[in-house]
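Students often ask why inverse folding is considered easier than folding. One informal answer: many sequences map to the same fold, so there is more than one right answer. In these notes we will look at a single instance of the problem. The structure comes first.
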């Protein structure tokens, strides 16, 4: 078997293990047994359990980001429509990859290791910054009533849509994908229209 295939087996086993249990409860023995590889091979690719954990976290967000921006509607230069699409497509990607979503949630709840918390925060912030940079790039500002306050408007809208997503995620855990996403989309459509009404000419 090729080494890349073996590394993929380790990654899949890591996601499976860490999605079901906290960092402290998962041993490297569990991961190598699930992946059917030697512990030496695991440490060939990842120097420690912590490095594996953080590499998995970064990989998880790479997959979610890939799905979020695959065929993203960049032709629509309206910032509210783009933010709506970002939240909806990211949520759909997280629902599609349930193991990744469960793993990401566990990483965000981890507080025992300050180094992991700091590194996780840095990785997440980098992804957030890249996402918003792509969304806000080349947007059309011609419809805004007052373009002197665009930065403030963008912050308000971003905070609102993030809160909508977080509240939705807590309220609709376990619901069928189509049903839950329809609920989210309806709320995003409502607030998109609201913002356009008050911020556009």
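Output (designed amino acids):
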């Amino acid at each position: 078997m090729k080494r890349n295939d073996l590394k993929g087996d380790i990654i899949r086993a890591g996601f499976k293990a860490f999605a079901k249990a906290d960092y402290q409860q998962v041993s490297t023995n569990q991961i190598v047994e699930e992946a059917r590889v030697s512990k030496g091979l695991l440490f060939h690719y990842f120097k420690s359990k912590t490095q594996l954990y953080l590499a998995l976290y970064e990989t998880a967000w790479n997959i979610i980001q890939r799905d979020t921006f695959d065929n993203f509607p960049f032709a629509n230069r309206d910032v509210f429509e783009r933010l709506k699409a970002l939240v909806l497509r990211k949520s759909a990607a997280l629902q599609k990859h349930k193991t990744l979503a469960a793993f990401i949630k566990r990483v965000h709840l981890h507080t025992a290791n300050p180094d992991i918390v700091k590194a996780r925060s840095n990785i997440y912030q980098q992804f957030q910054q890249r996402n918003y940079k792509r969304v806000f790039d080349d947007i059309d500002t011609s419809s805004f009533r007052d373009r002197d306050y665009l930065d403030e408007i963008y912050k308000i809208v971003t905070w609102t849509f993030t809160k909508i997503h977080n509240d939705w995620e807590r309220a609709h855990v376990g619901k069928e994908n189509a049903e839950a996403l329809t609920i989210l989309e309806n709320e995003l459509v409502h607030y998109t229209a609201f913002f356009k009404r008050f911020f556009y000419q």
